[in-house]
Amino acid sequence: MTCRRLEDRDALAELVEDPDRHTQHCPDCSARVRGYQRIASWIAEGRTNHRAPADWRRRTLAQLRAAASDAASAPSALPQPGPRAPSPLAGATRSDPTRARRLPPSAPPRKARLLAAFAIASAAIIVVTLVALMTRGDESAVRIAIGTEPKRVAPSNEPSAKPRLAPSTDRSQTESPPSSPVANEPAHPPHPIGRAQGSSTTDGPGPDDSPGQLRGARVTIDIPSAEPLSPVPPTIDVSIDTTPPGARVLLDGVILGTTPYRGTLPRSGLQLKLAIWLADFLDEVITVDASQSITRHIQLVPIQHGR
Amino acid sequence: MYGLPVRTRPKAQPEPGDDLITALDTGNYSIAIEILLLMYGDDIYAYCRRVLGNATEAEDVSQTVFAQALQDLKDLSGPHVARLWLRGIARHRCVDRLRARRRDFQVIETGDLCSLVDHQLAIAHSDSDPRIAKALDECLDCLDARSRELLVLRYHDELSFDEISKLMSDSPGALRVRLSRALPALRRCLEGKGVQP
Question: Which ranges in chain A belong to alpha helices (H)?
C-alpha cells in the first residue's frame, strides 16, 4: 500500500459511502474502499455467531408470564384492547428512555396502594381515638367505645400492676352496693384503663343492656394496656439464603441483590413473587406475603446437562 | 446525508403468523409477547450482544426489551413492523446500558482483550464462510464500546449521523471522525485473524 490518503484524512466514513474522484481512480484507495464496504455490508447483514443461551428464552418466558399474571391481577397495569390511551411507559423508546426505569414493573398497582393507605389511615384514627379516650379517663366514652358498660370495677389483684398516675382513689370506696351500682360512682372516676394492665370484673350488665344478655352474669373485660402502641414499620425485612450462595434475587425482573440477601421491602398486603436465579441451577420462584418479614433458605437444584 | 451503498440484500425476517395477528387483534398480549419472543428472541439477543459486546449484559437487556414490549404492546401499530419495533426498543435499551456503563469502572482494557484472541485463524475469503461472522464478532468486541455502537447504528440500523448524534450525544462531525478511525481498526483486526475484506 503506497497511498495513505484514504485513512489519513479522518474522512473515511464519508469516502466509504461516497468515494471521491481520487478514491475512485487510485488503485490502492479503491481496493481498500471496497474492503471497507464489504466490512460494512457484513455488519449490515447482521452476520454474527452470537446465539442466546439455551435457557435464556425459558427464563425470559417465565419472567414475561409472571409479569402478565401480575398485570392480570391489576388490570390497569396491562394494556387493554380498545382505544389508545397513554400507557405508563408510552414513548419510553423515543422521547425519554429512562421512563421505563422510573416505573418498574414491581411497583404495586395504584388501586392496591390506595386501598392499603386507606386501611392504614382508618386503623390509625381508631387507635388514636381510643388512646385519647383512655388518657382522659372518660369511662362512659370508653365503655361506648369498647362496647361494654361495666357496672362495678374490681381492684386489680395483679401485683405487677403499674402505679396509678392520678391521685389514688380507693375503688372499694366508689363501689356501689349491688342495688344501685352506678348511681354512686364519681362523675369522672379514675379508670384502670390507661393506668394498669389487667382485667376488670363487672357484676352483670347495666340497666340499658339488651334483653338477650343475662342479668347478674359475671362479665370479665380484658382491658388493653395503656402503653403507647408501637407504630407498624413501613418496611419489612427480607432475608434470603441459598445453597449455593450468589444467586440473584429478582422481583418482577428487577434485581434486588444476590444471596445471602438482606434487605427491606415496602410493607403491603400484596403477595410478592421473588425469583431466585443462578446460572446452571433451576430457577426458583417463591411467593411471599409482604405484610411481614421474610426469612427463607432455598436449596437450588442444579441443571442436569446432557441427556 | 450520504447513501449507503453497502447493503447488498435485504435482511430475511420471518413473517408474522396468524396467531400473532389474532392475539394482537383480540388484545391477548400475554400470548402475543410469547409469540414475539419465539419469533424474534434470538434476533434481539444477537443485536444486543453485538452492540454491548457482553453476553451477560445482552441477556439482561434483551429480557428488558421484551418486558417493556409487553408493557407497550398497545403501541405496536401492526404485526408486520414488530421486528423493527422490537429492534427500536432494543436499540434504546442498549444505548441506555452503554451510557450507564460509562459511569462504571472499566476493569479490563479492550486492548488486553484483543491480545487474548488468537490472531492465527486461517479463514477463507468467501463471503459465505461462517468464520467471517466469528471473526467479525471477536473484532467488534475488541473495539471500544462507542465505536462498536456507532458501527452497528450506522451500518446495521442504517441511521443517519444526525439520528445517531441524538442517541449518543455526540456531534455528527465527531461521529464521522470516530467511524473513520474505527473502520481501519476493525479492518486491521480482521486481517489479523486472516480475513481479507
Answer: 5-8, 12-17, 21-25, 27-44, 56-73, 99-102, 110-136, 139-146, 171-174
- Count, in order, helices (H) and strands (E) of chain B: 9, 0
Test A64 with B70 for CB contact under 8 angstroms: yes
Which residues of chain B have a CB within 8 Å of the CB of A46? 11, 43, 46-47, 50, 156
The residue of chain A with its CA nearest to that of B132 is A47
Q: Give me the torsion for CA of B94, B98, B99, B103, rounded to 10°.
A: 150
Q: Which residues of chain A from 242 to 281 reach within 8 Å of chain B, CB to CB?
A: 253
- Helix (H) / strand (E) containing B12: none
Q: Do B94 and A112 touch, CB atoms closer than 8 A? A: no
- Express each pLDDT in B104-116 by its tens digit: 655 555 555 555 4
Quick check: B6 and A61 CB within 8 A?
A: no
Which of chain A's residues have a Cβ under 8 Å away from the Cβ of B156? 43-44, 46
Residue A279's closest chain B neighbor by CA?
B56
Closest-CA residue to A241 (of A198, A280, A201, A276): A276
At B71 the three-state DSSP class reads helix
Average pLDDT by stretches of 10, chain B with 197 residues: 46 66 82 86 89 87 90 82 89 88 58 48 50 86 88 88 88 89 89 84
Please count the other Cβ atoms lying within 10 Å of the Cβ belonging to residue B92. Answer: 20
Which residues in chain A are contacts of B137 at CB distance < 8 A? 48-50
pTM: 0.45
State whether A97 and B96 contact (CB < 8 Å).
yes
Quote the pLDDT of residue B35.
86
CA distance A16 to A37: 6
User: Is B58 in contact with B49 (CB distance < 8 Å)?
Assistant: yes
Helix, strand, coil share (%) of chain A residues, nearest 5: 30, 20, 50
